[in-house]
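Appendix B. Raw example, untouched.
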Amino acid sequence: MAETIGLNDRLRFSKAGAPGQTRSILATRAVVSAFDIVGDAGTAGTGVTAVELGGRHRRITELTLSSTMALSDIPGGADLAVGQLIYTFPAGNIIVNSCAIKDLVLVDPENNLGADDPDVGVGTVIGAGVVNVLGGTGTFENLLTGQTSVNLAVTDACQASALAIAAGAAHTVHLNAADGWASSGENAMSATGVITIDWTYLEA
């Protein structure tokens, strides 16, 4: 019966010229990629690079955000939730096991929001509306509960979610932020950092 190879599994190869002898190597990302063990992958959003790891069903997706990943415009001087699409899961039934953020920073090229401390989370629905926290709408942060940032820098966090996404439900993943923004606002806020999603693909 075929077995799935995952990251950090050990592959054993016969040693040439010595029947019965084997040696073990660590399955690195390059080896995993070479064996093409990941099945149907999702789609990264604009300004996001995705690395897909794992087997046919259990996946790890690493999303690296760049400064070209622009969030919604912020008029400023009022409470507002904003967000941006960063990933779309493939069609089928999905279970999101956990989500983590690392080195996540909101980028303010106009230098208007540097003193703001927005609530930043990850959810299946894009942030919107007159709110200064994400908690009022569960789908704004159902993958990772909103984390309070300090001067736009977000503390590293990891959260087990066990979220089931049915085949007919929204398969989108958004980075969201909410705050009572500085009066000058921002038309081109983006984000840098890494968001890692551990998920299981159950197909149709």
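End of appendix B.
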